[in-house]
Structures are given as structure tokens and as C-alpha cells.
Design the sequence.
């Protein structure tokens, strides 16, 4: 039986948007950086780091950070710096860097940075490998048309660096290493727990399956997340790997308050702001040329047509994992989802958009003190998960 | 393309569709970074020449080869195709990205090109008059940049682009990204332009919004022997907007 695990995830957005921000079609890629005020940025970093440190104090199992570029959505262009700041301020919590797209960094360098963090934290690091959103390829000098081949090669180099005694060599399509011999090596052997991050495309599932990695899905509907987990278990078995329930983090938006009405009143505006403004971008940035196959592009374009229309909390809650309400309701919802998804790993987005500090602290505290104990006492979840 | 005969060939494993018409001295046309503009403009050439219009791999009716990552792969592709077609020496005409390719082909295999015509060719790096980085332009904004008089292009575009049209444009943009994402132009291209020794004609619209007409000055510097014709009131697709540009090519090649 797998013990339930709870993460607190934070996007660290830049929240001081200019009044006219809706005039910009995208809050990514070309959203002018003159709107970034470093003094406000400093305050936000101080605050967000405190919130993640609080998650450690409150007994969360892990805190989760990730990487994006040229956007108000995230101030973590280099999440390893954030992880380095979190290590000395936390004691028990795992620090999940989910993660730096390997394509955006020299692979040996990424292997080194994760190893440094792992050694510094005495083995508290978990990493995930995203291909990176389409937007990242507009911000970085890397060809989206060859991104998938480069991703595979980068991953191979990183794993070789971690698992084989150096020096080794690598002669590939994108990189040549005459002396792959990074110091230090990771604290955890053979390497920190690894996940692939993605939206469940067959290619990324296949990569996770081949390596027996976990899969951290992002912004997928409940049904797609379910199918993704099923597919990964099935494909991993093909390669002789068994995917454990803790390798399938279930990403859910969470807000807990005293009553349902109060929870919605305090939260829904922030969630709407998140979907309407922080995620706002244009198809050209979402899918740079070559980033998707033509078939995938057409599928997504057809989907985008269907998703047209304003923000609707009920529609969003109905299709994505959104747990908003009293401790009892949130616990029941998450418990049922975990059992259905056959996962023991809950990845909670505990802060969203311009949610103020007090709400974040309240949410983190209520979830830790009122929801987690309820879920841990539900033996049926662990049994149903383990029944798989 | 009533006059054109369509032929499907396999060139080194890549499906290659070639349209041809007419008889006489062969004229090969290299299209640009998209194919919505069509080839029918070239019909008048078929009155005097054997006109050969291939779709580049990754564009239009031809197949894909994701291993093509640079313009040189296209030079190699065309060496094979020309051998298959039994073309030893021929006239070469290139438009935009196809002009860049034609000039590169002519640099490397100058003995095979009798005369060279370049229509608003890409490839020049001119910091004072930079080429628009078309890769960065959202697809829906591209048509407006292609011509001066939009009516010329409107009839070739669907009123409401459907998924197939969007998919086909994305496919062509992906092919371009594979070639040009890192470097919209090869810094070494101009280094070898002096190897173009055959008679050369360069055509440009003075309202080109993609490659500024001022780049003709750079071409003049590298190819002092070239004849340069600028057409007033025409944009990037000068051959669609000005039939006299098409005639000028025919006259030059005759």
C-alpha cells in the first residue's frame, strides 16, 4: 500500500499587471518586460518563498516549482535558483523541480545543477523533464522543429551522466561530449526520482514508459489524465517497468474555506484571472512551427474552437481537477479522484494568479490541518489504489 | 494550371511532385517559403520554354523529409532530380526563399545554370534594410505582407481557412523552421555570390514588405553584371501583381 503524498505547487506569478493588460493578446513571449517592476518582484519572491517554506512547516511532503520564460505566469525562469534558495530554509520537504526543459540548457549543465541541489539538500530533490511549452521556444534559441529529437538526446546524456562512471563520451546529433564526467554526482542513487512533464502526447508517454519514469500531467482534463495514467501503465509494462501509484501525480487546483460559499467567493475570481489572463496566449506562440505534428496541430486547433467562450467556473470544475470548498468536500473529492486515477500522489496548486498572501496561508493551513488528516484516515483510497 | 502536366517522382526516397509544360529550352522555377500563390503565373513561359516547376520537399504536393535541415539538402535534392529529368544545363528562376536556393545552387553549380532570374530573393543579410523574420509573424498576418494589392492574393485564399488549410500552412512553416529557425540566412551565403557568373536578372517590387527593395543595392554590389528591374506599386509577390515582371523573365531568358 502506498501512503498518500501531498505536494504544494506554486507558479510564482508576477501579479502587478498594468491596467491595460487585456489589450495584449498574449501575456507570454512578447508581453513587454517594461511592466516588470523589480521592487515589486523582490517583494513577491520574498513572499512566495515564505509560502513554500510554510508548506514544509505544515508537513506537506513536497513543494513543486517549475520553469517558464517571458511571462507574467511565472517568475521562475531558472527554477534551480529558487530550489537553491529553498534548501536551507526547509528541512523535511522534498523539493520538486518540475522542471527545466533539457532543451533549454546544456545537458551536462542540467545534470550538474540537479546533482548539486540533490547533494546540498541531502537527497530531497525530485526532477521532471518537460519538452517545454511552445512559448519557451520563442524565448530561447532552440529550434522547435527538432525539439523532440533534441529532448531525447538530452535525456540520454543526463541519465548517462548520472548512472555511468565517468568519464564517458557521447557523440550525437546535437551534442558531442568528449569527457562526460560531471562533478558532483547526485546524492540519491542512481539518481533523483524522475518524471516526464506533459499533456499526455503519445511521444512523451512513450519516453516515460521506456525509462519507467513517472508522468506529471499539466492542464489536462480529468478524462485525459485518467487515460494518460492508463496508457503509461500499459506502455511501461511493455518495457518491463511497473508504474507505482506515487509516480502519477494528480494535478489539482485547491482552495479550502469554512463554507462552500465562502470558498467560492474567496477563490473563483483568482481562478478566472488565471485562466483568462495568466494563461492568455496566441496559437502562433502555443505551437511554433514544427513543435507539433500537423495532425496534432489540427486536433488542437479543432479543440480550441470548441473551448471558445468566457470563463465558466462550473465548466472548468467539471472538466479539470478543481477542489474548492469545505475541508470535508475537498477531502471527499480528492479522495475519490485518487481512487479513480489509482494514484497516491496529490499535486495541489495552492496559490493561483493574484491570490493574496493571507488566502494562500489560509489555504495551505486548512488543507494541511483539516484535509490531509481526513484523507490519510480514508483507508479505502489506499486499498483501491493498491488494488491496481 | 491547365497547361501543366503533373508527375510524381521518388527522389532519393522523397516523393517529389513536378509540374511541367511547354517545350524548348528548360526553365526550372523554385517556389518560395509557401505555395498558396500557385504556379499558373508561369503559363506564359510555356509558350517558349519547357517549364519545370517542382514542389520542394516539405511543401505543397511533395512529401516530407525531416532530415532536411539546411538549404544544402535542397541543393542535393535538386542535383538528383535534375539527373533524373536529364537536365544538364537549364535556366533557373527562384522566388524569395526559392531565389535564395536558386542563387545558392548557381554558386555551387554555375556550369549547369545558363541564365539565372531571382524574384525578390531572400538570403541577404542587410542590417540597414533587414528582411522580415517571417518565422516570427503569426500566420494570419502573412498574406497582408505578401502583396501590395491584396485583391491579387484574395482569390487564392479560402474565405474561411479550414483545418486542412491551416494544417498545410503549418506544415510548410514547419519545413521553413527546420531550415531557418537558428539562422534566417546563412552568414556565409554572400561570401560565395561572386561564383554566380551566368547572365542574371533580379526583379523586385518597390513596395515589398518582406524583403526591402533596398536590398537590390547589396545584390548589385555582389553581382555587378546583373540586370535589376524594380516594378512600381508591387509587393513581394511581384510576379502575381505585375504580368510585365513575368514577361521580363521570358524576354531575359530568350
Sequence:
Amino acid at each position: 500500500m502506498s501512503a498518500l503524498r501531498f505536494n504544494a505547487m506554486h507558479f510564482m506569478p508576477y501579479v502587478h499587471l498594468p491596467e491595460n493588460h487585456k489589450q495584449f493578446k498574449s501575456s507570454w513571449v512578447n508581453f513587454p518586460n517594461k511592466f516588470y517592476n523589480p521592487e515589486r518582484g523582490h517583494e513577491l519572491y520574498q513572499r512566495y518563498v515564505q509560502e513554500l517554506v510554510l508548506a514544509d512547516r505544515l508537513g506537506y511532503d513536497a513543494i513543486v516549482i517549475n520553469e517558464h520564460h517571458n511571462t507574467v505566469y511565472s517568475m521562475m525562469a531558472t527554477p534551480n535558483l529558487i530550489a537553491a534558495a529553498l534548501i536551507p530554509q526547509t528541512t523535511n520537504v522534498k523539493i520538486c523541480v518540475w522542471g527545466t526543459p533539457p532543451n533549454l540548457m546544456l545537458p551536462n549543465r542540467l545534470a550538474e545543477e540537479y546533482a548539486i541541489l540533490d547533494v546540498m539538500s541531502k537527497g530531497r530533490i525530485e526532477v521532471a523533464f518537460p519538452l517545454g511549452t511552445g512559448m519557451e521556444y520563442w524565448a530561447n534559441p532552440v529550434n522547435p522543429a527538432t525539439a523532440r529529437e533534441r529532448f531525447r538526446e538530452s535525456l540520454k546524456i543526463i541519465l548517462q551522466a548520472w548512472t555511468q562512471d565517468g568519464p564517458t563520451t557521447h557523440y550525437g546529433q546535437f551534442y558531442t561530449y568528449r569527457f562526460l564526467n560531471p562533478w558532483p554526482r547526485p546524492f540519491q542513487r542512481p539518481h533523483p526520482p524522475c518524471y516526464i512533464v506533459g499533456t499526455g502526447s503519445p511521444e512523451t508517454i512513450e519516453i516515460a514508459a521506456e525509462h519507467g519514469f513517472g508522468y506529471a500531467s499539466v492542464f489536462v482534463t480529468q478524462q485525459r489524465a485518467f487515460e494518460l495514467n492508463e496508457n503509461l501503465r500499459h506502455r511501461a509494462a511493455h518495457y518491463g517497468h511497473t508504474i507505482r501509484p506515487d509516480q502519477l501525480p494528480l494535478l489539482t487546483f485547491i482552495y479550502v474555506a469554512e463554507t462552500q460559499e465562502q470558498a467560492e467567493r474567496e477563490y473563483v475570481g483568482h481562478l478566472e484571472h488565471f485562466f483568462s489572463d495568466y494563461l492568455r496566449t496566441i496559437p502562433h506562440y502555443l505551437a511554433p512551427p514544427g513543435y507539433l505534428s500537423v495532425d496534432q496541430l489540427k486536433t488542437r486547433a479543432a479543440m480550441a474552437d470548441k473551448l471558445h467562450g468566457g470563463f465558466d467556473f462550473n465548466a472548468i470544475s467539471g472538466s479539470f481537477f478543481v477542489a474548492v470548498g469545505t475541508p470535508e468536500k475537498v477531502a471527499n473529492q480528492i479522495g475519490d479522484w485518487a481512487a479513480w486515477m489509482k494514484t497516491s500522489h496529490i499535486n495541489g496548486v495552492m496559490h493561483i494568479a493574484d491570490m493574496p498572501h493571507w488566502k494562500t496561508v489560509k489555504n495551505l493551513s486548512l488543507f494541511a490541518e483539516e484535509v490531509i488528516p481526513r484523507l490519510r484516515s480514508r483507508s479505502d483510497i489506499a486499498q483501491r489504489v493498491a488494488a491496481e | 494550371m491547365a497547361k501543366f502536366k503533373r508527375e510524381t517522382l521518388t527522389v532519393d526516397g522523397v516523393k517529389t511532385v513536378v509540374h511541367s509544360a511547354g517545350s524548348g529550352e528548360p526553365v526550372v522555377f523554385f517556389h518560395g517559403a509557401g505555395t498558396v500563390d500557385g504556379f499558373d503565373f508561369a503559363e506564359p513561359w510555356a509558350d517558349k520554354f519547357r517549364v519545370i516547376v517542382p514542389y520542394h520537399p516539405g511543401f505543397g504536393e511533395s512529401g516530407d523529409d525531416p532530415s532536411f535541415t539546411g538549404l544544402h539538402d535542397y541543393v542535393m535534392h535538386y542535383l538528383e532530380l535534375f539527373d533524373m529529368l536529364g537536365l544538364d544545363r537549364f535556366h533557373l528562376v527562384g522566388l524569395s526563399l526559392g531565389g535564395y536556393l536558386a542563387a545558392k545552387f548557381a554558386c555551387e553549380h554555375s556550369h549547369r545554370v545558363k541564365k539565372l532570374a531571382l524574384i525578390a530573393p531572400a538570403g541577404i543579410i542587410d542590417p540597414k534594410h533587414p528582411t522580415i523574420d517571417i518565422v516570427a509573424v503569426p500566420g494570419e498576418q502573412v498574406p497582408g505582407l505578401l502583396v501590395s494589392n491584396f485583391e491579387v492574393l484574395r482569390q487564392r485564399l479560402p474565405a474561411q481557412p479550414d483545418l486542412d488549410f491551416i494544417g498545410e500552412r503549418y506544415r510548410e512553416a514547419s519545413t521553413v523552421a527546420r531550415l531557418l529557425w537558428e539562422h534566417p540566412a546563412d552568414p556565409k551565403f554572400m561570401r560565395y555570390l561572386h561564383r554566380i557568373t551566368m547572365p542574371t536578372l533580379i526583379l523586385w517590387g518597390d513596395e515589398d514588405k518582406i524583403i526591402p527593395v533596398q536590398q537590390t543595392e547589396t545584390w548589385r554590389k555582389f553581382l555587378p553584371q546583373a540586370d535589376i528591374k524594380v516594378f512600381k506599386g508591387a509587393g513581394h509577390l511581384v510576379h502575381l501583381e505585375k504580368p510585365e515582371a513575368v514577361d521580363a523573365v521570358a524576354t531575359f531568358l530568350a
Notes: The domain at 5-253 of chain B is CATH 3.40.50.1820 (Rossmann fold). Chain B has eight helices and eight strands.
